[in-house]
């Protein structure tokens, strides 16, 4: 029997843990990254027309829509998540939260509120791009592509591109070359980022029956493809210099790109878990440095 004096303490510590479990469903770390890409898309437009409140609502709308897509992904993937060590502790997969229809209603409500706020406060075009990003990840990738093709994550990468375009549309309804090129960069970034992780977790994806690239073509070929995509990504990241991007952006794109290529080249030479995880983390560094370069370059205009 638990001592009476300890019961309130146990209850007080259980509540925060419960909320952490609930919040984990929404993949908020990914959502914050998607939100930052939207703000970078806004910063890429030279003469933004967005007010403070529009920027705030755009940020929250992108975060909310991304959270809804992330929650839907975990809801639908609970069974396969149980087959992978990397994902079996997720809330629905582990049984920490019941996979009830009420969750689908909550996800739909969150997405509807996010899109409605973006359409009302920002504009319809921005809301459309926010919605397309959520649908691409939550429906097209999760429900349609993930178990059908090794190129699943390529199309899934459009989710980040749509976030960039949402930010650009909030700044101006006329989306120009700088924003389109940044959207292209996000599209090219996702495959080497995720395929590096897939190489590190190849056995887990194979056990779960998910046809990620290394499962289908083998580690060596997948690693070579990662390096080729990384090279295309770095080249694309330098193209905004032809359309008015400044030296700060150029330095950031070059520094992050060289670091990424160094790691993906090492992966191509020695395709193993250690080099794959190094390439995975290098892709995160490359994107963070690039987005910081976009924002700083805009601030110095």
Count of beta strands? 0
Helix content: over 70%
Shape descriptor reads: flat
Q: What would CATH call the architecture of the largest domain?
A: Orthogonal Bundle
Beta fraction: under 5%
Task: Look at the structure and give the CATH class of the largest domain.
Answer: Mainly Alpha
Per DSSP, the total helix count is 15
Structural overview:
With 301 residues, this protein is mainly α. The protein is 78% helix and 0% strand. The protein has 15 helices and no strands. The protein is flat, with a radius of gyration of 20 Å. The N and C termini lie far apart (67 Å).
Key phrases:
301 residues; mainly alpha; Tetracycline Repressor, domain 2; Four Helix Bundle (Hemerythrin (Met), subunit A); 15 helices; 78% helix
The gist of it:
The protein has 301 residues and is mainly α.
Topology:
Blueprint: H1 7-24, H2 28-43, H3 52-76, H4 78-81, H5 91-94, H6 101-122, H7 124-145, H8 152-156, H9 158-171, H10 177-200, H11 202-208, H12 213-217, H13 219-238, H14 247-269, H15 273-299
Helix pairs in contact: 2-3, 2-9, 2-10, 2-15, 3-6, 3-7, 3-9, 6-7, 7-9, 9-10, 10-13, 10-15, 13-14, 14-15
